Amino acid sequence: MIAAMKNYPYVITVSSEKGGVGKTTLATNLAIFLKALNENLPVSIFSFDNHFTIDKMFAIKGQEVNSDVSDLLLETTGRELLYTGQYGVSYIPSSTALTDLKGAVKGPMVLARLLAASDIPGVLIIDTRPDLDILTQNALYAADQVIIPIKDLASMENCRNIFDLFDKRGLDKKSLSLIPCLIDERIKFEGMFNDQKTLLKAYAINRGYRCHDTYISKSPKVESLNTNPDGKIYPILTHGRGTDVFGQFTQLAKAVMDEMSATKEPRSYLFHQWLTAENNRKKEAFFARLSGLKQDCLLCGRPISPDRQQGASYFYEASDGGAAGFMEEACFSEFLISSLYNINTNLAADDPVRLMLYDTAKESAFAFKPRMNGNGAEVECHRFDLSGTHISKKSYPLKKHGEGAENKQGQLFTLMAGTLDGYGDTFRDAFLLVHPVSAKNPEAILVEENYRELSKLRKSIAEQIN
Ligand SMILES: Nc1ncnc2c1ncn2[C@@H]1O[C@H](COP(=O)(O)OP(=O)(O)O)[C@@H](O)[C@H]1O
Ligand SMILES: [Mg+2]
Q1: Among the bound ligands, the one closest to the CA of 28
Q2: Which CATH fold topology does 10-267 show?
Q3: Ligand 1 centroid to 25 CA: how many Å?
Q4: Residue 325 has pLDDT above 90, yes or no
Q5: Which of 1, 2, 151, 261 is spaced 20 to 30 A from 16 at the CA atom?
């Protein structure tokens, strides 16, 4: 069976921190001109702004719409959100709920991941709000091409922030290009840069910014396209024939198309590959950790129940990675009670002292560190809370089983020998970390994200006890 091929959109983001520079006009009309250039190219568009221009322009009369761009951020597959719109362009309806959702967008790579899994075909154009909020940052990060309209020096000044952002993230600034917009052809200057667009381009190039060859003129006709008695917004392609802007959009669409054709794999596909590799790496690391676990309980020697439903409630690991495994609830708490807390083991199962110790242990991380001092070997036993705050410390002499009549620390020796055994009669320079896990799914602690947390805790503990 051949696996169904997924689609990975080529993404064009239109962005500028300035409002009123022609972003939305550019995004919407570019979509229509691209479609006109190539009937077979699927073209879709959505906006992170809440002015519903996209919807006014592309919605088909009577079309029922029951999802929008906020659903994309809430993890609905992008393709399922596309509505067939006018002029052959598909659109994801706009939303007024994005401001409330912003907090849920964790980091600038969320959209890239969603688009990698979106199954949206062809080209996707994203219109953005006039600021560099987290949604715009996401749209920039996900883009194959970013088009930045500038209409004056102030808007060019502003676009430095986008370039700085790309620098900060280590992104390729080649995908960014400026385009002079709303250019008034009547304005002429003396000297070399004798009109607005030439002046803007000269400034842009001087700063090392890439500029589109073409520009967009200011045209009363174009301006009138969104002010009419029908309350509609008409496209330049159909209603602006004969204007300079018509020719300029044709040229821009061709340039964008050429750049797209020269791109072997869109960012969304590369991102998909990276995610897959990353997932595989995490999976491998998980199984490697899992297969390194000791099969038998360190304390009682019995096999850890294969279904791990029998209360594998503690994970232990030597800080140098030399040994790791699970301990069952009963074994470890019995060890705590008799070896560390020195309490009579004949406590009833429901004795309040015993129950209190159980509860405390479930909220604690323990570190056991063997050391030599004047009197021989001893083990420092530390208790931390799960955020790494040190709570208590006590040292116990390290004695083998049977040494001395009152040797309650025999189990402590067993624990140290089973995990930190070094060359000959010595212990390695490491400590044993014991951390509670959920008895329902103990292996969860070995999953990448959780294990990373555990490693952080281990590091913090190491700094505190060494
Ligand atoms: N080429 C143009 N000629 C004349 N007016 C334009 C042109 N492009 C856009 N406009 C007008 O400028 C205003 C701002 O455009 P818009 O695309 O909404 O900018 P932004 O999305 O950057 O805020 C709108 O009223 C629009 O009709
Ligand atoms: Mg806009």
Answers
A1: 1
A2: Rossmann fold (3.40.50)
A3: 6
A4: yes
A5: 261
